[in-house]
Amino acid sequence: VSGLMEGKRGLIMGVANDRSIAWGIAKAAAEAGAELAFTYQGDSLKKRVDPLAEQLGAKLVLPCDVTDAASMDAVFETLEKEWGKLDFVVHAIAFADKAELKGRYVDTSLDNFLMSMNISCYSFTAIAQRAEKLMHDGGSMVTLTYYGAEKVMPHYNVMGVAKAALEASVRYMAEDLGKRNIRVNAISAGPIKTLAASGIGDFRYILKWNEYNAPMRRTVTIDEVGMSALYLLSDMGKAVTGEVHHVDGGYHVVGMKAEDAPDI
Ligand code: NAD
Questions:
Q1: Domains of the chain
Q2: Who lines ligand 1 at CB under 6 A?
């Protein structure tokens, strides 16, 4: 993949630490020659993101809370001033109140519903509005989703509803922006132990379940998600848009595993 992303500049949103999916994608893009900018949410994450960004030679490390329109505006003003253009954006951001990532979906409060939808779905649209203006030579936008958008997963609750809306927004934006050669896709990653995932009830059980039931009989890594993202971000995925691409060891194709399947 060396040279694949040479001359391309991209914004990575959603690194919290070196276990973040966004970090796996950033490493893959940088290794392929991309120049990166990072955003971090709040001062407490700055000290984690700064050294990671430095590791990949990124000079622009900017604060951004997607609930604050002014902070999103400021990021894109800086990118316009420093770079003048943008080739790709990675949106790896989601949030819901931990208290409602267990128990029943039906008990979701309005406040948490609106907040989860805003941070986990609308923010990708808000970022796309701003990024589009800098994608003069076309571009690629990638967000992260999960199978809980398609099927009921225990404890995923309001996040499943937000991810379903996010996946629909990927299709609508693919149509809106396709004429300008801007592609919009999602990666549906299998469960990975990250900071965000630790908020989901019984997450360890979900990991084990995937290990036992995915065709590949294992979970996936942030580096593997990174490689697949590279395909969507680069010219390798030049004609791919509106897609929800599963990087989950095949978990989503299984209705029921054969009983005589060898144990892992
Ligand atoms: P993570 O905790 O490393 O990343 C989540 C990021 O969201 C953090 O960097 C956090 O700062 C950011 N964020 C939350 N609220 C924000 C706000 N208001 N403004 C700006 N940033 C905000 O966890 P992750 O698992 O790498 O999550 C990245 C994405 O991948 C999320 O969309 C998540 O739903 C998705 N995903 C995760 C898994 C998994 O099992 N870990 C599976 C499929 C999809």
A1: 9-249 (3.40.50.720)
A2: 14-16, 20-22, 41, 45, 64-67, 92-95, 119, 144-146, 189, 191-192, 194-197
